[in-house]
Design goal:
The chain is α/β, with parallel strands linked by helices. The chain folds into two domains: 117 residues, Arc Repressor Mutant, subunit A; 298 residues, Alpha-Beta Horseshoe (pyruvate-formate lyase- activating enzyme). It has 18 helices and 19 strands. The strands form five sheets. The chain has a nine-stranded mixed beta sheet, sandwiched between helices. Helix 3 packs parallel to helix 4, helix 4 packs parallel to helix 5 and helix 8 runs parallel beside helix 9. The two termini are 28 Å apart.
Amino acid sequence: MSKTSSIDLDALERLLPRYGGPGPRYTSYPTAPVWSGDYAVESLRESLGRLDPNRDIALYAHVPFCTSLCHFCACNRVITQKPEPPVEYLDHIALEIAAFAEAVPARLHVSQLHWGGGTPTHLSPAQIELLFRHMTDAFPLREDAEISIEVDPRVTTDEQMDALATCGFNRISLGVQDTNPATQKAVHRIQPFEMTRHLTEGARARGFESVNFDLIYGLPYQTEESFAHTLDEILEVRPDRIALYAYAHVTWVAKQQRGFERKDLPDPATRIRIMLMATRRLLDAGYRPIGMDHFAVADDELSRALDDGTLRRNFMGYTTQEGLDVLAFGPSAISELPDAYAQSEREIGAWQEAVRRTGLTTMRGHLLSPDDVVRRWLIGRIMCHGEVRAADYAERFGGRIAVDFSQELERLEVLQADGLIRIGEAGGFVVEPLGRLLVRHVAMAFDAYLPEQQKRDQPLFSRTV
């Protein structure tokens, strides 16, 4: 039997033109456009004070610095080659971490720690170790903690890798995007594959348990043939995880994307064919679809989390250990708490000023309503487990999903007719293998804020394919 037999990719090809519109990625619910400045510093301080002292937490640090601008990127970053900004950043993030530690009700322990950016390996080896100490002195790590980082192979040295290994990092994500020279030149990211290979081999030699590659389809000058060659090279080194992202053309966020002339970007039909070809290649190579755009080998921890029901999704993407609250440090970082989301000031100058003034730096956030809590749970089950059981809903919330969400279930009937989900008599439903690749559309049916957001002239979300 073919390894792709459980997913009807021919059916997916027929459906994609209808399911390719914009939609949230659901790294949170409610999504960030709903949040407001009404949730401010004191609101965060109160939410932190309500944390359960007996539960482990996750930590996130946003390191915003990059030495050059990748033209596809819509992340919050600071382009600099000067030595002073990272020094000032480390001084301020130490104060912010201390403010968080003072606000929580006890000395909380950490089961997950993650650094993103920007480029965390913009920091020198000594600075890497200093940031790690700032975080773990305030919030001690569990012995078996998952410790992960996002890196750019172009700027990551063997000395930095040694520092990461010394700290205990055990999972690493490499930005690759595409190995095609024409595409790399267009997006201002020249990265010979030997750089990626060297860093992958170095991570494994140092004992990193999992290596992830980020790939993007829909970039300038990509074709089926060029991306197939990228996959040939990627599969030679066989990363444990692959994130296959659709290029997000969000020029209202990333103005430099306006430099991509329309003729440079693959047309929608080509973009779909690239995605389908890549999906077939990954499935045939033994990767499992974890959800949406993530794939992992069968013995990777993400695969195990999918099987045992502990997979979760947050602003770090798909991860393990369901139920962890996230405390996040650095400019634009987002904390995810039992009753709220809180985002720090985005601009580094404003963030530093807020740190000096109040310690905590909340720019906006959202206090969850009772309805938000229910829908967040439902969307989390859809995105991570591919299933919502009526009995689980009744046990958790004391209601009947078939009654409480009758209108949402009616909307799902179209997706059921397309073979994306299967709805049971009591209102529970299962996302079919085909539907896992379009799972955002299943979740969108339960988003109470989305209908009003879709009426706006200004787009809020990237395309789902």
